[in-house]
Amino acid sequence: MLGLERKDTLLLIAVAFITLFAPIILNPFPAGSALAQFNAGYPDLMQRFVIFGIFAIGFNILFGLTGYLSFGHAAFLGIGSYSAVWMFKLLSMNVIPAILLSIVMAGLFALVIGFVSLRRSGIYFSILTLAFAQMSYNLAYSVLTPITNGETGLQLTLSDPRILDGDTGGGLPVTSLFGAEMRETTTLFIGPWSWDFSVGYYFCAVLMLLAFYLSVRIFRSPFGMMLRAVKSNQQRMNYTGLNTRPYTLAAFVISGMYAGLAGGLLAAMDPLAGADRMQWTASGEVVLMTILGGAGTLIGPVLGAGFIKYFENIFSKINDGILHQWFAFMPDGLENVMVALIHPFIGKGWHLTLGIMFMLVVIFLPGGLVEGAQRTGRMFRRRDRNADHVESDAARQRAAAE
Question: What is the pLDDT of residues 278-303, one digit of tens each?
Answer without folding.
Answer: 988 889 899 999 999 999 899 999 99
